[in-house]
Prior knowledge:
Elements: H1 17-20, H2 23-35, H3 38-45, H4 49-63, E1 68-71, E2 74-77, H5 79-107, E3 111-117, H6 119-122, H7 126-136, E4 140-146, H8 149-157, E5 163-167, E6 176-190, E7 200-201, H9 203-206, E8 211-214, H10 219-230, E9 237-241, H11 244-252, E10 257-261, H12 262-265, E11 273-278, E12 284-291, H13 299-310
Parallel strand pairs: 3-4, 3-5, 7-11, 8-9, 8-10
Antiparallel strand pairs: 1-2, 5-12, 6-10, 6-11, 6-12
Helix pairs in contact: 2-3, 2-4, 2-5
Amino acid sequence: xxxxxxxxxxxxxxxxxxxxxxxxxxxxxxxxxxxxxxxxxxxxxxxxxxxxxxxxxxxxxxxxxxxxxxxxxxxxxxxxxxxxxxxxxxxxxxxxxxxxxxxxxxxxxxxxxxxxxxxxxxxxxxxxxxxxxxxxxxxxxxxxxxxxxxxxxxxxxxxxxxxxxxxxxxxxxxxxxxxxxxxxxxxxxxxxxxxxxxxxxxxxxxxxxxxxxxxxxxxxxxxxxxxxxxxxxxxxxxxxxxxxxxxxxxxxxxxxxxxxxxxxxxxxxxxxxxxxxxxxxxxxxxxxxxxxxxxxxxxxxxxxxxxxxxxxxx
Length: 314
């Protein structure tokens, strides 16, 4: 931009563009795209159909391009309309976030949110996030409970909890899933073990030795059993434990070898052990955040949900 030149929004030479674009019109446009009919949007938003049509026409006039294609089968967005629907959702979400966060300053946001977290995340990713969140919002209480990944998807779908953090896996629950963090599985072995001189191993190579495994019902336990079965092998589970710190200690004293996320292994000082790369596609894992429906979250839960996803930027 030329130094000293006035800023004029795109789409207007007189600077009036921003005064004509309002959130009600954007909300109605998004609703029409979702419903596929003006009548459907009108009923849901409790606004007369002619008023909805008028706002749609005003948007098309404002942007100078058709946004919707109207046929006897309903309404669908043009390429420009599809782009606007994405941008409009972002704008509406930002406006809701502004209201939520400013409300916390105006009268003190209070309440609680119930969060279910799997064993991988509860001791690694969550503690620093919970600490910083509660320092910023001291009147909000977090009820943090550990559950298996599949149980988390079902509980959130059934409204037992508002937010879940789990390792991405196939599920049938009616929930929204959002990316959170990534991690990688490693093989922990005693320093005197036959594999200790290796830098990386395949899972098939580990099956020749006894394992210390996480309890049955966890996603990692299921993965290990499934991978062994598919290869026609047997997982030799010497000891089954309920936590990663117990798994690490068992490996450290030489009971067997163990597979665990790198993030969990990094929490413990483990002299007398070595950590090896696991050469398997399923060793790459993704932690995700799930909600039943983002727009239906309580103000407190929405605030924590946004904080969780915002932490991925740090």
